[in-house]
Amino acid sequence: MSTSPPASEARAGRVLAGVLALLVLAFGVVGWLAGWHLGADSAVYRAGALTLVHGDPLYTRDVLTALPDWVRLPFTYTPAAAPLFLPLALVPSGLVWGVIAFLSVVGLMVVITVVSSPPGRASLLGRSRWALPAGTAVALALEPVWKTLFLGQINLILMAFVVLDVLVLAARRSRWAGVLIGVAAAIKLTPLIFVPHLFFTGRWKDGLRAVGTFVVLEAAMFAVIPVDAARFWRDSATDPSRVGSVHWIFNQSLNGLVNRASELAPWSLAVAVGVALLLAGPAVWLVVRLHRRGEDAGALLVTAFYGLLLSPVSWSHHWVWCVPLITLLVVKARWWAAAAVTALFASQIVMLVPNGGNAEFGWGLGWSVLGNLYVLAAAGGIVGLAVRELRLVRRSTGLVTV
């Protein structure tokens, strides 16, 4: 039986995008053979796994002994992350960046593919063999994406876990739904925001599986490294400064914005949490409304961007959720909106605004707007969508004359 044209085009697109991912891996191999220093964060992942194997402390102010001499970063991930990073211990030190970069590009392709194929609609990727590779190439130019790859971060991989869990497994009512979110949260705490997402969208069993997976993985570490596990939950998990200066421009969260505006006033976090609580109402309402309308990708994105605002630290490379947002806007043919979001994250604006040291404290109004643009855009987007949704409700109930 011959393959239908759309299926053939989609398959060709996956092959072309796969070639792009292999080129990234090849670059990683070249970097390894040439002795380049690539991906400081990927080196931390591998060092965390080796530290666990060696029985050394994970959470210390000293540099991990397993780190290469060109990296001076602490292990800021959960205790359960260390054993989950063990496969990286089998990879030569210089090649870890290439492996993670390759998996990240694959994760990027997975996210674009899933969001481009909404239930009940023809896949966007079946229209042209160039859709997926072109979309992947454009995504690589976005600041959160290229910075994730540059640092050797795993944001794209964790995002793929969440997208697959919510938009594929949960949609198919799989018994495994929720597990990937639990694993992602057991590596990095921020994906815990998607547990209430599952609850608010009526997927209680999936949410409980996510919680159960997370708890089992973390609880197991109290048996393996009890002192380190206790130290993490007692000290490290509640110390945002451990991962860097919270007022630095690259912390694009409400907490970062308030700390910059207040010049690190002690009440900054409380104010940021208060603003986040005010946004929680419209955000949750949007999630529920979109889910009931069958727009699960949109509902997921509201939760993702709200989570970025809520987290005490959301580095600019955590904002990789701009990729599924742009993809969804293209699927819906919202061309101007897609162009605006692409322009925002491709502008490299957070790289251009004066920053570092105390530079953020002297910005003034103009630089403050530009330096907090990710935060302002996300908060404005949630409020704007909530207002639009409220108008739709009023129209449907006859309260507004169309």
Report on this model:
The model has no long low-confidence stretch (mean pLDDT 92). 46% of the residues are buried. The protein is globular, with a radius of gyration of 21 Å. By secondary structure, it is mainly alpha-helical. It is built from 20 helices and no strands. The N and C termini lie far apart (51 Å). Helix 9 (179-187) runs parallel beside helix 11 (204-224).
- Helix count, DSSP H or I runs of 4 or more residues: 20
Q: Please identify the structural class as seen in this structure.
A: mainly alpha
How many β-strands, per DSSP?
0
Radius of gyration: 21 Å
Low-confidence stretches: none
List keywords for this structure.
globular, mainly alpha, single chain, about 400 residues
Write the layout of secondary structure elements.
Elements: H1 5-34, H2 40-54, H3 81-84, H4 86-89, H5 96-115, H6 131-140, H7 143-151, H8 155-169, H9 179-187, H10 194-200, H11 204-224, H12 226-234, H13 254-262, H14 268-292, H15 296-310, H16 322-331, H17 335-346, H18 349-352, H19 364-371, H20 373-396
Helix pairs in contact: 1-5, 1-6, 5-6, 5-8, 5-16, 8-9, 9-11, 10-11, 11-12, 13-14, 14-15, 14-20, 15-20, 16-17
Summarize the structure.
The protein has 402 residues and is mainly α. Helix content is 65%, strand content 0%. Helix 5 (96-115) packs across helix 6 (131-140).
